[in-house]
Amino acid sequence: MALKELTLDFDLSAITDIRHDLHAHPELMYQERRTSDVVQRELSQLGIEFKAGLAGGTGVLGYLPATHDPGAAPTVALRADMDALPILERTGLPYASTHEGVMHACGHDGHTSILIGTAQALKNAPERRNNVLFVFQPAEEGGAGGQKMCQDGVLQGKVIGPKADIIYGLHGWSVLTVGKVSTKPGPLMAAADSFDIHVKGAGCHAAYPHFGIDPIVVASHIVSALQTIASRNVAPLDSVVVTIGEIKAGSAHNIIPETAFLRGTLRTLKPETRAFGERRIREIADGIAKSFGAEATVDWHGGYPVTFNEKGATDRFFRLAKEAIGGDDVIEAELPTMGAEDFSYYGHEVPACFFWLGLLNEGQEKYPNLHSPEFDFNDKAIPLGVKLMSTMALAPL
Questions:
Q1: 350: left (phi over 0), alpha (psi -120 to 50) or beta
Q2: What is the DSSP track for 123-142?
Q3: Cβ contacts of 352 within 8 Å, gap of 6 or more
Q4: DSSP code string of 216-227
Q5: d(Cα 322, Cα 131) in Å, to the nearest integer?
Q6: pLDDT digit string, tens, across residues 31-50
Q7: Which phi and psi (to 5°) does residue 386 adopt?
Q8: What is the spatial distance between Cα 189 and Cα 178, in angstroms, rounded to a whole number?
């Protein structure tokens, strides 16, 4: 198959219109009913068999068999996420969010549209050597929709179509130029856990602090000490981030409160560092609180595991992508990122590769960051996204 000359039959204008429509009607995790309906409508029009109502109600799995002997053909899964974020949009676009306080600030409208375009291109392909599963999942933004799709058995042949042999996913990337893609084997994105720390002291009058135990002072020492996990407990070439993003305490300037509350996140790239980080957070909170005569309890909320690119699936991506678009535009990432992705769950089921799709316009110094009120997925990236996802599905496995 001459991938560089591969001609894909899909309607870019229609896919772009779908993207704008999804952007104008964003939906938060597990509320993606309209988005799911759009996906189902498009698959129905293409004559692609699908199963809806997955992952708690809004997930969709499409199945397109190989053109010859699908029972013996390998199966490639392709994934897109559909949910938006609770952010007030400030793009000023004609297709800006019509749902105040909700917007597609992470580009899932682009991901979903690309996978719809890929379904169109593959349906129109004269020959498909592989079966294809189209995984449209809800709730990537903290809801672990990918995990629920896996629990429903979408990759195991329990919903529709055969068991998947390999899976690919993509994410728009605002620091990478349009026309380029990037990934790496091994850890690509971090595990992300969250935790709550409840500090209990003794309240008193602010003028007489010696009659109480100030939980705000205790909490402040805990915040400072947690930074030593990265600076003094973990090897300098390992990666760990501990961030406290929320502190709540007190009700007036002249009252020392009884309690303080902290909420934070731990991000790591290795399972052993992840376990060690949790242990140290618990030890630090408890030890510092006791040293002040206070108490601290830690509530741990395990989050997404590391997004790990299996070597064989990633080598295949590099080989096929370079053949399809040229080697200069396929970049091996030097380092992983400490952001997290629930695509990670699929990699626990089958060999997986996740890649970044450039959004930065040529000559543009900076593109709006993901999760910012100014972000909008770049329509110029859609054709390359469709081409690469289609290539992964069409090339022999």
A1: beta
A2: HT-S--SSEEEEEEES--SS
A3: 166, 167, 168, 169, 308, 309, 310, 313, 343, 346
A4: HHHHHHHHHHHT
A5: 23
A6: 999 999 999 999 999 999 99
A7: -65, -40
A8: 21
